[in-house]
Amino acid sequence: MKDYRDFLAEVLIPEDKLQKRITELGAEISRDYAGKEILLICILRGGVMFLTDLIRHIDTPLAIEFMAVSSYGVGGRESQGQVRITLDLNCSIQDKHVILVEDIIDSGHTLASVIELLETRDPASLCICTLLDKVERREVNVPVKYTGFTIPNKFVFGYGLDIDDFYRNLPFIGVVDLERYQP
Ligand code: 5GP
Ligand code: MG
Ligand code: MG
Question: Domain named Phosphoribosyltransferase: which ranges (predicted)?
Fold first, then answer.
């Protein structure tokens, strides 16, 4: 694996800007759900960094759970219309206030499928909190309640987001120069 500096086109969102926005999102969620218990469901693996930072800024009783999904057609950089649950929840979400925590929404297919599935399990409420949103790429409508940043149509990595499973550990969001990236 190459050093990320060899293919980093630009730092799109530096660490301090990410952390400031996540602090604001945590405060917003705390206000909106004051007096309620919430369940945050993180979609592995991209959402992990965001979840762990976000919950430090939420001041209402909360539990966390994890799900993993995969698009048909593994290895691509875009999801297709169908997703498969590869790790399901360990708990019931019936009558719970659920917030789905995602790293990025692109076409919207992943979250549309997850939402459709979770709605059948009767939560008290269900909403989406995403760190990044590539709004212009949307193919299916998904109701997003909390957005960290709206970003342009560029392939990004770092802060949970991978390129071929690596670079999730970087504390900022960077843009890949695909001409300089050799897998
Ligand atoms: P969607 O189903 O909305 O098209 O795609 C969502 C998933 O695609 C994300 O959870 C993420 O795994 C992946 N994805 C979409 N855009 C990017 C990107 O710019 N960088 C990375 N690393 N993953 C992305
Ligand atoms: Mg994701
Ligand atoms: Mg990925």
Answer: 18-163
